[in-house]
Amino acid sequence: MRRRTGSTAIIAARADERPVDTEEIRALTEAAGYEVRGAVTQARAEDPGTCFGVGKVADLAARAGEADADLVAVDGELTPRQTAAIREALPDGTAVFDRYRLVLAIFADRAGARRAQLQTELARLRYDLPRLKARSDVQGLNRRAEKGTPLDGVKNRIADLERKLADLPHPAEQHRAERREQGFDLVTLAGYTNAGKSALLRRLADDMAAEGTAESDSEQHPDAATVTAAVGDRLFETLETTTRRATVDGRRVLCTDTVGFVADLPHWLVESFSETLSDAAAADAVVLVADASDPPPELREKVGVALDVFDGQGVDGSAVVTALNKVDLLDDAALAERREAVADLAPEPVPVSVREGTNLDRLRAAVVDRLPTERAELLLPNRDGAMGIVSRAHDRAVVESVEYGTETVALSVRGRPAVVDRLRADADALDG
Ligand SMILES: Nc1nc2c(ncn2[C@@H]2O[C@H](COP(=O)(O)OP(=O)(O)OP(=O)(O)O)[C@@H](O)[C@H]2O)c(=O)[nH]1
Ligand SMILES: [Mg+2]
């Protein structure tokens, strides 16, 4: 959000009781490109009309005026009425965003590709629609959308965007089918924002290069051109999914990094970005990356929500590996507390430090355990066609042994069931 460089904000948070946490709204505001010039907090029940009450809103307006703030960022969701009341009180030129509007601004700024742009606009209009309805009700306009009214325009645009999105070629899905055919296993990295997903992706892919598998150097992966897994200590560093190729225990894996979850996102917003989650549902294994440096209750909450979301998307629980990342920041006692906190949710979490490369082998082994695997012993007649099958086996699966006799070639292979089935069928065809 370089283009908002120089923009300033005041953050405001309310809770029924102290303490009032401002950490996340501050992080979101900074992620949206604002410099936070001050914070106003309040511990009391919510005021239905203004959220903070008239007096506190006046304070907020004064602070915004002193700081010459471009934005007041309010933690939580404001009703349309509260938004209007706060904006009314603020100096001219100071906008008010609630948490969701802020998240949308971040997504919009980071949305590069066509699909992401359309999704972002759609999410924003879905957010605006009830607010626009409320406003037109206040103005006494017909609440049913008449042709030519702004409300009507927004509804048409939503329908239009939904159509466009449905028609847009879905490269991820297209590639997915092809890759499976080629013997790739699909692994998705998912979890809350800032957990270390992109950093892990880089590790897995880098490790592949370090292992120097035959295919890693020359053959260009179709996704290679679009690939960079940005790692940053900003929220929502990753907006579009990124896929890289890795080799785990001899298997060819396509590893997809996804958009991070953020606490308390409303469902409609998550839906707008469900591409991420459909990736998870289509994967053979999902690595849930959690930031173990979070306090135990927060860690527990996040792991629980993520597992619920996966479940809602039809991800099989047995396909999920939970990685407790950033253990370099914890001592043994602190790590034990984290394990305890998630014990009933994630039975065998793998503690890792992506930064220091700790325990990544264990994580890889846990992933491989979840990949569908079949073994076959094939006995091929020793003639030309056999070599083709052996080389396909090397390309698409793991060849455990191959023995060349005068009459026959004995091939022992393991890999994706579909790939192994195909090799078996080819072998049968050669025989007959
Ligand atoms: N101390 C420590 N920091 C880590 C570790 N792994 C990642 N980080 C840091 O955590 C921050 C977030 O990492 P990312 O990989 O960008 O996180 P992400 O999950 O991709 O975040 P989003 O793209 O926003 O969803 C970065 O500053 C990383 O350097 C780790 O093992 N230890
Ligand atoms: Mg990321």
Automatic annotation (TrEMBL):
Gene3D superfamilies: GTPase HflX, N-terminal domain (3.40.50.11060), P-loop containing nucleotide triphosphate hydrolases (3.40.50.300). One of its GO terms (molecular function) is GTP binding. Residues 185-375 form the Hflx-type G domain. Its cofactor is Mg(2+). GO terms for cellular component: cytoplasm. It is found in: Cytoplasm. GTP binds at residues 191-198, 257-260, 325-328, 353-355. It comes from the Archaea. Keywords: Cytoplasm, GTP-binding, Magnesium, Metal-binding, Nucleotide-binding. Mg(2+) binds at residues 198, 238. Belongs to the TRAFAC class OBG-HflX-like GTPase superfamily. HflX GTPase family. Monomer. Associates with the 50S ribosomal subunit. GTPase that associates with the 50S ribosomal subunit and may have a role during protein synthesis or ribosome biogenesis. This is GTPase HflX. It comes from Halosimplex rubrum. The gene is hflX.
